[in-house]
């Protein structure tokens, strides 16, 4: 049910390489509507293309204590395999080696600026001598070096920056993403920003100023697509009872996540018996089952059904 949206993403990635111009795509939708599933399908397709693509991936979060520029840190940590469990010195080395691998010797001088901005402690680096007390200059140079980094990366092959849940991202991270979209306009780079509508309460003009900007609004699945999804999930049930399909489709209201959680609840309640290669439906149990009217209710019902340890 998302073929048109997937094709739009695919066209944008092709265009950034063919036109040597940045493409900025915002994928917009409510919770559970299928954004993550579409992104994974798109990235899987991208990984199968003959032309290799540098992938940088980050995610906004609500965790307490997240630093400014956390989204940018996530992107580079993903690319350079920097883990939270790494010692500070090891994390700095991975970042510096990664940047040098794209920028050459100049990267060794630029990495401390980028790293220090995004929360790695490069305060002992000679490159930052005399500038640590000037936060604005450090920030401006780090921004500039980040743009140079992506310029160097895309000399070899296109790059894809995929940032998800940016409605939870800190403002400083959003500023960097917006800066890169403008500074890298003439590079074969695709920026895919995935968000809920809440982002536009903070940033009503998000993405609109870029010449190659597109916005994909994911709507709830229509009835036919919902029925197709139910049939796919319940394909191990021969002759699925129509009343079961009707119940799932009507209550899920086109929300794929709600639909899947509702099916899981019906399995846990014994309505759907998922044993072996052929599943079955207990119609008597179905008639007795009360389905919560909201996703929150379904999730709570599943939690309540968990057996105590």
TrEMBL record:
SUPFAM superfamilies documented for this protein: P-loop containing nucleoside triphosphate hydrolases (SSF52540)
Orc1-like AAA ATPase domain ranges (all copies): 1-191
Cross-referenced Pfam families: AAA_16
GO function term, MF aspect, one: adenylate cyclase activity
Annotated GO CC locations: cytoplasm
Keywords, in A-Z order: ATP-binding, Nucleotide-binding
Domain of life per record: Bacteria
Database matches in InterPro entries: AAA_16, P-loop_NTPase
Protein name per UniProt: Orc1-like AAA ATPase domain-containing protein
Source species of the chain: Kouleothrix aurantiaca
């Amino acid at each position: 049910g998302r073929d048109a949206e997937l094709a739009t993403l695919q066209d944008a990635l092709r265009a950034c390489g063919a036109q040597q111009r940045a493409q900025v795509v915002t994928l917009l939708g409510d919770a559970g509507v299928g954004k993550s599933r579409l992104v994974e399908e798109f990235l899987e397709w991208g990984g199968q293309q003959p032309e290799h693509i540098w992938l940088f991936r980050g995610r906004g979060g609500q965790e307490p204590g997240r630093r400014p520029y956390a989204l940018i840190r996530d992107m580079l940590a993903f690319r350079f395999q920097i883990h939270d469990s790494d010692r500070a010195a090891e994390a700095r080395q991975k970042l510096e080696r990664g940047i040098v691998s794209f920028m050459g010797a100049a990267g060794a001088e630029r990495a401390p600026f980028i790293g220090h901005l995004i929360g790695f402690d490069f305060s002992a680096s000679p490159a930052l001598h005399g500038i640590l007390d000037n936060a604005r200059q450090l920030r401006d140079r780090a921004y500039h070096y980040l743009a140079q980094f992506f310029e160097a990366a895309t000399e070899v092959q296109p790059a894809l920056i995929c940032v998800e849940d940016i409605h939870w991202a800190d403002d400083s991270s959003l500023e960097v993403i917006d800066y890169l979209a403008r500074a890298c306009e003439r590079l074969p780079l695709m920026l895919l920003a995935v968000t809920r509508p809440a982002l536009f309460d903070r940033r009503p003009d998000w993405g609109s100023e870029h010449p190659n900007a597109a916005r994909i609004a994911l709507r709830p699945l229509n009835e036919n697509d919902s029925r197709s999804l139910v049939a796919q999930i319940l394909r191990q049930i021969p002759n699925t009872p129509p009343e079961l399909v009707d119940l799932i489709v009507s209550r899920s209201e086109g929300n794929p996540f709600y639909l899947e959680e509702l099916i899981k609840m019906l399995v846990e309640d014994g309505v759907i018996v998922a044993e072996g290669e052929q599943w079955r439906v207990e119609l008597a149990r179905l008639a007795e089952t009360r389905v919560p009217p909201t996703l929150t209710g379904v999730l709570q019902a599943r939690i309540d059904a968990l057996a105590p340890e």
